[in-house]
Amino acid sequence: MSVNLPPVPQPPALVLAEAALQRQNALLGASRDTPLPAPSPSAVPSPAGAPTPLPPAPQVPDQVSLSAQARASWLASGPGAAGTPRQPGVAPGAAPGAAAPPPLAASLGRPVLPQGAAAPVLPPWPATGVGAPLRAMVSMLVQQLTAPAQPQRVLAVQPWPAALLPQVDGEHAPPDLPPLQTWLVRQGVVQTEQGPRGFALTLRVPQPWLQAQPQPPTAAPAGGAAPPLAAAFAGKPEALQSGTWALVLQPATPAAPRASALLTLDFQPLAQPTLYARELLQARSDPWLLMAALQASGQVPKDEERVREHEAQLCQSQGCPYAGRAPCEQPFCLALRTVLPAEAVDPESPVA
To answer: In which domain of life is the source organism classified (predicted)?
Structure first.
C-alpha cells in the first residue's frame, strides 16, 4: 500500500552552502590546532599485529553563523531562525509579541484573501454588444413585457456573464450602484427556423428607478392574466442560448430618466432536427466565406469615416469600465448610476 507523505521543507541552497563551508573549516581547524592526546601509562598495550585504536575526534560545536543574505532567504522560505516555524501574521525579523500591520486590501475595504490563495481573475465588462437578430428579439420582448405597466425602450444590450453578476447585483457591487429589484416575470415562445422554443423571462431594475415610475409595477391589463410573450429570432437556432443580458432602458415619455437592467432568459433545450440524405448532398453557402470573397475582390468598400465616427463616440469618462471601449451610454456605466429624483406634484393642480 502506497502512502503519500507531505513534502519535507528544505532550507535554501545558500544556507546549506554556508553551513557546509563553516562546518568543514571548523573540522580542519580543530584537527590542525588540537594536539593528539598522549597515551595513558596505565593503558594495556595491544598485542602484536592488532591495530592501534585511534584517539576520539575532537568535539566541534555545531554553530553556524549565517550572512544577512542567507538569513533573509531562510526567513522567506518559511521557518524562522534555528528551525523555529514562523508564526502566521508576524513579519520576518519582528519581535514574537509584535502585531503585524493590517494588509493593504483590508485598509482599502476589500475582502482579504487567505494566505496562499490567488485572487480571482474576472473577465472585462462586455462592450461589443450583440447581433442584430438577438437585439431585435430582446427589444420586442421588453416592449411586450413592459407595455401593461410602463412601456420601455431598449437603448443598449450587452451579454452579461455569470462571473460579473456579483459586480452589479450583490455584495461586491459599487456603493454608488443602486440595488436591483425583480420587476416582471413572464413566459413566452420564440419562433426559430427549427420551430418554437419556450422560455421564462425575468427583468430586474434599480429599486429607486422603479419607485419613481408613475404607474405601479403590479399593474395588469384588463381581462385577466396577461398572454404569453411572442417574438421571432432571425438568427441560427444554435445561437439562442440561456443567459443574462444587461440593458439600458428608457420610458417612452420624453426626458425620462434612463436605467440599467438585467434580463434573464431561460430557454427550453433545442430539439435536434432529423437529417436526411438529400439534405446532406445539398450545397450550403457559408455567409462568412461569401463576405471574405467579396472583400478579397474589392467589391466591398472600406467605410473609414464610419470607423472614425464610432471612435469619436466612445466613452471618455475616467474610471468607467467602458472608457475607450464602447459609446455612451452602456449598462451600469457611470452616467447611469445616478437616479434622478421624481418631480414634486403641485397639490393645487387639478388631477386628470
So the answer is: Bacteria
User: How far apart, in whole angstroms, are the C-alpha atoms of residue 220 and residue 241?
Assistant: 29
Report helix, strand or coil for 220: coil
- Identity (one letter) of the amino acid at 19? A
Of the candidates 182, 191, 181, the residue with the CA atom closest to the CA atom of residue 141:
191
Local structure of residue 234 (DSSP, 8 states): -
Task: Identify residue 112 by its one-letter amino acid code.
Answer: V
Q: Spell 164-202 as b/e; 16+ CB within 10 A means b.
A: bbebbbeeebeeebbebeebbebebbbebeeeebebebe
Q: Which three cell numbers, joined as nine digits, stand for 347? A: 397639490
Please report, for the chain, the start and end positions of each structural domain, with discontinuous segments joined by +: 132-212+228-270+331-338
Indicate the SS3 state at residue 345.
coil
pLDDT tens-digit profile of 86-145?
A: 444 444 445 555 455 444 444 334 445 555 555 567 788 999 999 999 999 999 999 999
Query: What DSSP state is assigned to residue 323?
Result: B
The CA angle 196-200-206, to the nearest 5 degrees, is: 140
Report how far residue 243's alpha carbon sits from residue 263's, in angstroms, rounded to the nearest whole number: 8
Residue 279 neighbours by CB distance under 10 Å: 10
